[in-house]
Design brief:
Strand content: 25-35%
Number of helices: 8
Strand order of the largest sheet: 1-2-3-4-11-5-10-9-8-7-6
Number of strands: 11
Helix content: 25-40%
Shape: globular
């Protein structure tokens, strides 16, 4: 797969921006006791070959339970770690499998019709509440109170820049870019339900592409949550460079598939 080691490293840097991290020989464990229900902030990410699955799973459970957090993990390198997958149920884990597309901007711009009603702004203290209202309307992002807490934390991070699109003066679309080194990752792309289907995402994505060129970024990544979203990003010249297979395991609470279906 084309340079997927870049997106894996960027993923770690991204989560480190709002979580504490402990490094183990099999991977890393992220946690944020201030936001215990924020899934992204509280997961182990395991990608190296596991020699003793039973010991590892017990250690992961003990690690998170000692912090009053629900044990959750993402397991990559699934072909080499089949014995660990087989041990999950024995240790009280539910699990689900994913094959996620990875898209990278190819450096080309889509020709979009000029629309004088569209205005794209960088999010500042002056328009933060408008941007937050858009994000809080998206159920797949989580509970509104949790979205607000996570937004406020990442907004003040120097690694994130938020953008707000207005149509006829009404805030209706947001997205942000996380930058680490020579790489960027587009996150939290959101459009108010009543404004979907108008192609607004294309305008805000192109604005971020233009900003990434100004910053001299070598790679600009985006991770769609499903095939339908991937097609939208493809129209903005984010092209698939491969797929990542993973297992998401958790001892209690909703699965990621359940959260997406509830949206």
């Amino acid at each position: 797969m084309h340079k997927l080691e870049h997106i894996m490293q960027l993923d770690i840097e991204y989560i480190k921006s709002f979580s504490e991290m402990e490094t183990w020989k099999e991977g890393v464990l992220f946690y944020n006791k201030d936001m215990p229900t924020y899934y992204d902030a509280n997961h182990a990410h395991i990608w190296r070959k596991i020699n003793n699955p039973d010991a590892l799973l017990m250690d992961i459970k003990e690690f998170y339970q000692s912090k009053s957090l629900i044990p959750r993990l993402y397991l990559y390198n699934v072909e080499e770690n089949q014995t660990c997958i087989e041990a999950l149920e024995t240790h009280g884990f539910h699990y689900e499998g994913f094959t996620d597309d990875v898209q990278c901007w190819n450096g080309e711009y889509t020709l979009l019709p000029h629309n004088p009603a569209i205005q794209i702004e960088r999010v500042t203290e002056d328009n933060m509440e408008e941007a937050l209202a858009v994000e809080m309307s998206i159920s797949t992002f989580g509970e509104p109170s949790l979205i607000k807490q996570a937004f406020e934390q990442t907004y003040h991070s120097p690694y994130f820049t938020y953008y707000l699109l207005k149509l006829d003066g009404i805030a209706c679309c947001t997205a942000n870019i996380f930058v680490s080194g020579n790489q960027g990752r587009v996150e939290s792309v959101a459009t108010l339900e009543s404004y979907r289907g108008r192609g607004l995402i294309g305008y805000i994505l192109q604005h971020i592409q233009q900003e990434s060129v100004k910053q001299g970024l070598e790679y600009l990544w985006i991770l769609p949550i499903n095939e339908q979203v991937a097609k939208v990003y493809d129209k903005a010249n984010f092209k698939s460079v491969g797929k990542i297979a993973s297992i998401h395991a958790f001892t209690e609470g909703k699965s990621i598939n359940e959260i997406r279906q509830d949206s």
